[in-house]
Amino acid sequence: MPSNTPIIGFKTLAVATTLTLATSSQGLFTTASKVGGKYLYNFSTVPFLSELAKLIVSGTLLYQAHSKDPKGTIITLDWKNARLYPIPSLIYLVHNNVQFMTLKYVDPSTYQILGNLKIVTTGILFRIFLHRKLNKLQWWALVLLMVGATISQVSGCGNSTFSAPTQGYVLGLVSACLSAMAGVYTEFLMKKNDDSLYWQNCQLYSFGVLFNAIALSVDDANKGFVNGFWFHTIFNGYSVLTWCVVLNLAFTGLLVSWIQKFADTIVKVYSTSMAMLVTMLISAWLFGMQPNIQLLLGIVTASASLNLYYMNPLDLFPERQIAKEPSVKLDVESMKDNKNADD
């Protein structure tokens, strides 16, 4: 098997499947948390509490792991290493702002479709920064995944789709590149050394908490603190469903960090893309709608892409494998004959 043909183990498959289900649940929990079609809580507090929850969980797991195996739990206390951890949070911060800017120029349908560009941009950055080669089958698989995701979203698009100004498409491309860059850079960071995953998470989420707190404070300052300081009103309007949104988002983030540490960003891309299709399928079932042909085609295309990406290229030419076996046997027999002749 070629060295660039990825192998998915049972644990990775289980985590990826769980990530797909958790990601698909996020949109459903978020929609269900609305009351009368509105959010009664400050939605900007959700990422902050999610980062805080991930930090608490990672800190607890780190403490337990270090207590059981101090030598096996590797913790690098080095400023040169620690200074790299704010970068993913900064990229996501810029990405969120670019997303809002993009929506000023394009409609939601076009925005969703442009978002699929991150599938291919991830593959490109995966190759450039991580030096991970993808064979032709894998490149076509990523393109096929992007097409499948786009097909499923075309349904219901009006004449306004793809009629946005040029700025909208440029920002959409920038947003896709930033999303891919954040994922690829985080994978680079997680695999940079043999540090404990829990310790790496603690560093990542500490900066996540910090930057989200700063963002909330700046937002309050821009509004003149009309509703008071966010820290005093953080739980206003929260319900059980709101906490489901927070905890599910935190759980999803922990799964992603595991995948980026022990698998790769492409696994994450497939999990989140399949989650989008699962969400659409579940939504159609919950709201009594018939799945349309676009959704079914999207699911089939994405499934074919998944199979193509993890296919051994030699499986396309089984006759070559069969042809190689007799030649090997002949070589062995000829070696035996030569040895007997020498004797």
Automatic annotation (TrEMBL):
What sections of the protein cross the membrane?
111-130, 137-156, 168-190, 202-218, 238-259, 266-287, 293-311
Supply the alphabetized keyword list. Answer: Membrane, Signal, Transmembrane, Transmembrane helix
Subcellular location as annotated: Membrane
Tell me a GO cellular component: Golgi membrane
Signal peptide (UniProt feature, chain positions): 1-22
Q: How does it sit in the membrane?
A: Multi-pass membrane protein
Which positions are tagged coiled coil? none
Task: Return the Pfam families for the record.
Answer: Nuc_sug_transp (PF04142)
Q: What is its main location?
A: membrane
Q: Which family does it belong to?
A: Belongs to the nucleotide-sugar transporter family. CMP-Sialate:CMP antiporter (TC 2.A.7.12) subfamily.
Q: What is this protein called?
A: Nucleotide-sugar transporter
Upper lineage: Eukaryota, Viridiplantae, Chlorophyta, Pyramimonadophyceae, Pyramimonadales
